[in-house]
Amino acid sequence: MTMKIAIAGILVVAVTAFVPSTQPPINAQRQAFLNTNTALFMADGEASQPLRIGTRGSPLALAQAYETRKRLIAEFPELDEDGMIEICVMKTQGDMILDKSLMELGGKGLFTKELDTALLGNEVDICVHSMKDVPTWLPDGTILPCNLPREDTNDAFIYKDGTVKSIEELPDNSVIGTASLRRQAQLMAKNPTLKCVNFRGNVQTRLRKLDDGVVDATLLAIAGLKRMGMEGCATSVLEWDEMLPAVAQGAIGIQCRSDDERSLKFITAIGHEETQVCVTCERAFLEALDGNCKTPIAGQARIVDGKIKFRGLIAMPDGSQKFTIDSEGEIADAHKIGKEAGEKLKSDAGDTFFEMMVEMSPQQVLGQITK
Question: pTM for this one?
Fold first, then answer.
């Protein structure tokens, strides 16, 4: 494997030897599209232009960028040539400030703004995101038309010595490390004695803190652990009834400039329709609630027997109030189902619920210290 590194505001790594193990499926409509658009490099000199993939630099983000690269090469073998794909690594505000909660930093967009800037500035051609980090609005001039096949969406429960297997088994006054208000609210709804402390950093950092005895337990998306081959770290995997996952958890999204036909052709070919349908439903729910990292919100959709089934939740950060909804409908109505579920929960909770959320300071909401 050869590697080329250049530093100019972003780190560019061009890996030139990688053979994908499997080729993702393509539906008939997408295959027809490709058959009529085989000339991806239309202008003179385009064949020598690399496809630049923008990503954060955490081990999980890089694993997702290389998964994208693998799938692109499986569809377009010409991209396996030397230097045809570059992985462009950059730090976001969310990566750099680890001593404050996400709520204190301002919520959504903390892990995408710098990537958006690079995309609009033509420093990269596509950006690979964890979809749960992506705001429900996108900057003008960009689109997000592709979701890769989704991983398991559930949360992993990790106890310090593996002896406690579930939230219900946690001893009173246990200390849980989490930066997520969604997880905090659902934990405290089950056991108000639990103490949640702000737990920031990448997966490896959090697991190291757990091993060092900083907290008794933590929760992480099992999808991220699986993508890094670390699923063995999980004590157990929590079902929806125990811990409803975040909107778009386990999904990877790929963004490009709206006028970049070349990049759009590439990423359209590797999209996964079922994932995109479910993510669309979940993000419509989040948008209807005007949700961000300041509000405990969970939402998950899945396709069962040709229907889309959705479950949503909003709660007070201390778990003292919780509202849930289950909806079902046609796949074609995914956006409508998510939107109407969000509007219903907003009505059920009432204005006072959201007014209380706005009035609470970060310290009141979190009741946490940073670990």
Answer: 0.82
